[in-house]
Specification:
With 110 residues, the chain is α+β, with helices and mostly antiparallel strands. The chain has one domain (5-106). The protein contains three helices and seven strands. The strands form two sheets. It has a four-stranded antiparallel beta sheet with strand order 1-2-3-4. It has a three-stranded antiparallel beta sheet with strand order 5-6-7. It is elongated and about 55 Å long.
Length: 110
C-alpha cells in the first residue's frame, strides 16, 4: 500500500515523511527506506542521541571510519561516516521538534 505522505524534511542525503493515514514515518537514506511507527521513530531518535561516533565507529573495508546502525530488521543496517551521522542526528532532531509542535497544536485548548 502506498502512503499519502507529507514531507517532514529533505536534504541531500535524507528524506523523512509521514503518512497522513497510518502515521508511519519513512526515513530514506540514499536508496534505503525504513518505516517506523511514531513510537519506534522516537525510540530510534532517542537512541541515536546517546551514541558517540568516536567510541562506536569502526574502520570500514574502504579504510573510512563509519558507524553501523541497526534498522529494526536483523539483516539490514545503515552505515554512516562522521559527517553523515551528524547530519542524520540534526535532521532527526528537527523532525522530532516538528512532530512535537504538531502534537501541541492538535491538543484541545483548555
Amino acid at each position: 500500500m502506498n502512503c499519502n505522505t507529507k514531507i517532514l524534511i529533505e536534504s541531500d542525503l535524507f528524506y523523512i515523511a509521514q503518512c497522513h493515514q497510518c502515521k508511519k514515518i519513512s526515513l530514506q537514506y540514499k536508496n534505503i527506506l525504513v518505516k517506523f511507527l511514531p513510537k519506534y521513530f522516537y525510540g530510534f531518535c532517542n537512541a541515536l542521541e546517546r551514541i558517540e561516533f568516536k567510541t562506536m565507529s569502526v574502520l570500514s573495508p574502504q579504510g573510512k571510519r563509519q558507524i553501523v546502525l541497526n534498522t529494526g530488521h536483523h539483516d539490514i543496517q545503515f552505515t554512516f561516516t562522521d559527517c553523515e551521522f551528524d547530519e542524520l542526528r540534526d535532521v532527526l532532531q528537527q523532525v522530532k521538534i516538528m512532530l512535537d509542535a504538531e502534537k501541541l497544536l492538535q491538543q484541545p485548548q483548555a
